[in-house]
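Researcher: Can you fold this with adenosine monophosphate in place?
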Amino acid sequence: MSVLVVGSVAFDSVETPFGKRDDVLGGSATYFAAAASLLTKVSVVGVVGEDFPLDALDFLRKRGVDLDGLEKVRGKTFRWKGRYGFDLNSAETLDTQLNVFEQFAPRLGPKACKAERIFLGNIDPELQMRVLDQVERPRLVCADTMNYWIASRRPQLLKVLARVDVLMVNDGEVRQLAGESNVIKAAQAAQRMGAKAVVVKRGEYGALLVTSEHNFFAPAFPLADVRDPTGAGDTFNGVLAVRLAAGETLDVAVRVAAAAASLSVAEVGARAGMPDAAAIEAALQLA
Ligand code: AMP
């Protein structure tokens, strides 16, 4: 089993009330691959600029992540600057520089075109669609997005949604997408927009699943020391997508993903912060 992911590979500058770090490795595809590769084989589709040190991804390569679909081109790598408030639950974007993603036209190799499980990570919905269009017979399509794209690429995003099995967004995003303040109503509205299931990531409050048949709520793992919330959403996505790909039910997969995302915020960065399968199982025993 393997999962194909398209998303950002980035330099992040992140401020929290407890510290600040500049130009650290980030991006939706990076965090997704860091989480999912602990459980299965992952192939990454994306782009970086000439300022990107490819050896920063050696830890993924060592875990068997296929980076053949990651292009290095002239120009600057995607950059995101964000700030977390005192509750550390949601990030405020201070700056987004698309850079090499502005001109990126992903072309999948013959193996990638045969992928059966796809994760459309947070990136321009136009690019998500281009990847989806090249995959011959996807059996499971999961997707994420964020306020930036909901505001600037709504029509393209709605087209993608019609082809998605599971949409994984946070509460602010689902409210914005649906134009509805109640999270359950917003998730139901997003589900009617096309995704078969909608999973709403609610940070320290866990996660909500909405399908046309049922709703389900999974708690977060209670944590006293939160060090770095960046990437928690993509860790959640990685674990959820892999568990679904392995044939687990949505309810079980959401429960495991919520525990994994909680653990990921206890450490800083895409690398150190990733809980392995044993740590996730141990957390679930305690939950
Ligand atoms: P999350 O898992 O939701 O915390 O996502 C964190 C990652 O999203 C960061 O490492 C950022 O580089 C990346 N990111 C932020 N804004 C965007 C955007 N507009 N498009 C794609 N990726 C983004």
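Model: Folded with adenosine monophosphate in place. The chain has a mean pLDDT of 92.
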